[in-house]
Amino acid sequence: MFYFKLAWGNLRKNKTVYLPFLASMTYLVIMNLLMQVMVNNPGMRSMPSAMTVHSMFSFGNVVIIIFSIIFSFYTNSFLIKRRQKELGLYNILGMDKKSLSFMLAIESLLSLIAVLLVGLISGSIIAKFLFLVLKKMTGFGEDFVFHLSLSMFVVVTVFFVVLFLLLLITNILQLMKTNPIELMKKGEAGEKEPKSHWFLTLIGLISLGSGYYISLTLESPIAALSVFFVAIILVIIGTYLLMITASVTILKFLRNKETLYYRPKPFINISGMIYRMKQNGAGLASICILSTMVLVTVASTAGLYYGKEDIVKQRNTSDVSFNTQLVNDQVQPQLNQLAKEHQLKVDDSLKVDTPNINLVQQKGTRFQVFNGNDQTQNGLVALKIWTEDDYFQMTGKKANLSENQILFYPITGEYSGKTISFGDETYSIKKQIESLKLQPKINDIYNSYILFVKNAESVEKIYSALETTGAQEPLAYSTEVMMNVSGSQKNQKEFTDGVFSYQEQLNQELSQQELPSPSMPYARASEIERDRQEANQFTGGFLFIGVVFGISFTVAAALIIYYKQVSEGYSDANRFEIMQKVGLSHREVKQTIKSQILMVFILPILLAVIHLTIALPIIRKLLILFGLTNNQLITIVTVIVVAIFTLCYLFFYWQTSKVYYRIVKRN
């Protein structure tokens, strides 16, 4: 009972440092319970994009677990540092280390019980609210219902029991390795004045510059995907090294400026920051990296969510598209019949038989087969070759092409040449088309061109010429049908179901037929409303995960700022007390504190915004892989996210400066 009262009293007396720790652990319980609800929801399996969404939430669950472990140890290190003087005093007064360990175990048990009780109860309520928010954002179906099971509570409880046990073992091991005098002094020990490391500063500059260079010079979205994490690691290394080493070098340079240094405010600020800059630098770099992660995560996921309509329209140039691997003249009549049965008006309809030419490589005006060995993938073009009969079907106009003439239509990209060559065959561009019905211009990963030639013999001639530039499959034609329809939403939904039923019917009928691409289905349908629903689910789930990550990282940054201010406040209290005794006024103390905190904490957010600005080109290229090419939207969303986060950050600064001042001011 004695140890229980002692442990309870310790928790109450140290509430300044314990409450933020307990609050952060409670928050982690809520986040982990929320992810359990999302990942283990039975309705997840019934959604059209079930596997993708489930994988996304499973990934989010893993990230939250890893984040919980790292952040728990980080906050615990601040907590135990503030307790070391107290533990040393208990040891001197007669409590051996075994008794102290038992007392710490009771404190951990009480903390664990409080965290789990508050976290699981409040987590259940908050998870229900956030679940409804997610359902509204994504449009998940009625099968996706809120589900809390005993197993979810058990998983979260076991995880935090193990986590608290690991924290307790860490604290006990640290206690066992030190003697009472060291414990008494360790809580107040500051960092020794660090040396200027020009070599590490140079490494930091090279790392940061390399990360920036990768982001600013990459052209291919595919390449961006492969080197994105390399750039992240380089920027993290550069940020930590520059915060720790370059900051010391600058401060020492300022200290050597006698006219600047030997004045009250600069003297206190510069000397104090140099004294513990190694610790400050690591903490500030952590705040900067977390802030950058918040900005990048929320800006990119929000950009995807608010640009989902652009994504859908880019993927669907018509309301309905239907592709078959072989020529099938029955597809268009069947789709027209389905539209008629569901009382829909066919506004536009196009059927073309297209050769199986897909990706080619452009080198100037010459086009050749892409062999897949070019890792840069520069100059790739998605190529369609249609006839002048197809052009007449689309426009009602005659092309009147000769054997070596083509009409050129760039769906994506631009082409300034007057001729196009395939092997030994060269074709002159009679006209470059500005727009085509059912084939609007879009932005994509690759350039995409449509060539209209005289007839099928011209297509075969181009294909034979391409064969001389690399290995190709034998020439085969497929059927592509595009259609725009109008009518009631109910009828359109029934029509869509009919289209996909027809797709399944064709695939079952022809499953045994020898196809040009055996691994692909014979028929593939795409419908804009169904794609819009799936895009809403995908981007909404992504934004939800991004917001959860963003809030988690923001809370982490806020608590690091808080612990940093509390820790430094106690370390600086005696120093400011002495300075006030020799004549420094309350007003001068407050002004000095404000300027010091402002200098220290504006730096990470400024650097985070710079990181984000430099990262925007590579973020835009990665978002192209998801189909988002609206750079203006991405910029607007990014600016709004930066503004909101900056306001939150300044609020943290304002609150922590008050905490710091309360600690260091003279009563």
TrEMBL record:
This protein's name: FtsX-like permease family protein
Keyword entries, A-Z: Cell membrane, Membrane, Transmembrane, Transmembrane helix, Transport
InterPro entries given in the database record: ABC-4_Integral_Memb_Prot, ABC3_permease_C, ABC_permease_BceB-typ
Cell compartment(s), UniProt: Cell membrane
Lipid bilayer topology: Multi-pass membrane protein
Domain ABC3 transporter permease C-terminal: 61-180
Transmembrane region(s): 21-39, 59-79, 100-133, 153-176, 197-216, 222-254, 282-306, 542-563, 597-619, 631-652
Entry's family note: Belongs to the ABC-4 integral membrane protein family.
